[in-house]
Design a protein that fits this description.
CATH topology of the largest domain: Conserved Hypothetical Protein Mth637, Chain: A
Number of domains: 2
Family: Belongs to the UPF0235 family.
Number of strands: 6
Distance between the termini: 88 Å
Helix content: 25-40%
Pfam family, one: DUF167
Shape: elongated
Region (Disordered): 58-83
Radius of gyration: 33 Å
InterPro entries: DUF167, YggU-like_sf
Number of helices: 5
Strand content: 15-25%
Oligomer: single chain
Length: 178
C-alpha cells in the first residue's frame, strides 16, 4: 500500500512523515477536502493507508495545571447596586416621573424604584433624579451622573464618590423605609 502512495504525483512526503511519526491531529478523512492538488482517488488511497488508526492527540491524557491560581474573589450578589471595572458604583434605577413627591418606592434585586416629582420632558425628571439621589446618598451632585437611559424609565446611575456599594445600598434601603 505504501508503494501506491509513493506513486502519487505531487505528494507532500513531509505530511506523510508527520502522520506516521508525530501523530498529528490530522484525520485521514480530511485528505478528501485537503488543500493539496490531489484528486479524490489519490486522497482515497492515502485514507486506505491510514484506515483504522487513531491519529488524534486526544489519546494522550491532559495534564492538570498545579500552579498557583489567583485568589478567588467573593461573588457579588446580583442586585441593583454593583461596581464596574473602573471602580465606579452603578445603580440600576426604575424611574417613575410625574409623582407628587420624590421618594424611593422599593429596592428590588433588579432595580431601585424612584418616584420623581418632575415631568418627563426636556430632561427635567433626569435632573431631579440626580439631585434627589445625591441628597439621599449624601454626596455632591457632581459625583452622581446619569450614564444610560436618558429617555427610558430604566436608567443607570454612576456614583464616583468615596463610598462603598454596601453603604450605597444601605442608604437607599433606609430612604425606602421612610
Amino acid at each position: 500500500m505504501i508503494a501506491s502512495v509513493l506513486r502519487i504525483r505531487n505528494f507532500p512526503f513531509s505530511l506523510l512523515f508527520r502522520l506516521l511519526h508525530t501523530r498529528e491531529s490530522l484525520h485521514p478523512q480530511s485528505f478528501n477536502q485537503c488543500w493539496h492538488p490531489w484528486s479524490k482517488r489519490e486522497g482515497a488511497a492515502v485514507c486506505e493507508l491510514f484506515k483504522g488508526r487513531n491519529y488524534s492527540r486526544s489519546a494522550m491524557p491532559k495534564k492538570h495545571k498545579t500552579g498557583k491560581s489567583a485568589p478567588k474573589q467573593p461573588e457579588q450578589v446580583p442586585g441593583p447596586v454593583s461596581q464596574d471595572k473602573g471602580g465606579l458604583i452603578c445603580i440600576a434605577i426604575h424611574a417613575k416621573p410625574g409623582s407628587k413627591q420624590n421618594a424611593i418606592t422599593d429596592v428590588s434585586p433588579e432595580a431601585v424604584g424612584v418616584a420623581i416629582a418632575a415631568p418627563p420632558s426636556e430632561g427635567e425628571a433626569n435632573a431631579e433624579l440626580v439631585r434627589y439621589l445625591s441628597k439621599v446618598l449624601e454626596l455632591k451632585k457632581s459625583e452622581v451622573t446619569l450614564d444610560r437611559g436618558c429617555r427610558s424609565r430604566e436608567k443607570l446611575i454612576k456614583v464616583s464618590g468615596s463610598i462603598s456599594p454596601e453603604e450605597v445600598l444601605d442608604r437607599l434601603k433606609r430612604a425606602a423605609a421612610e
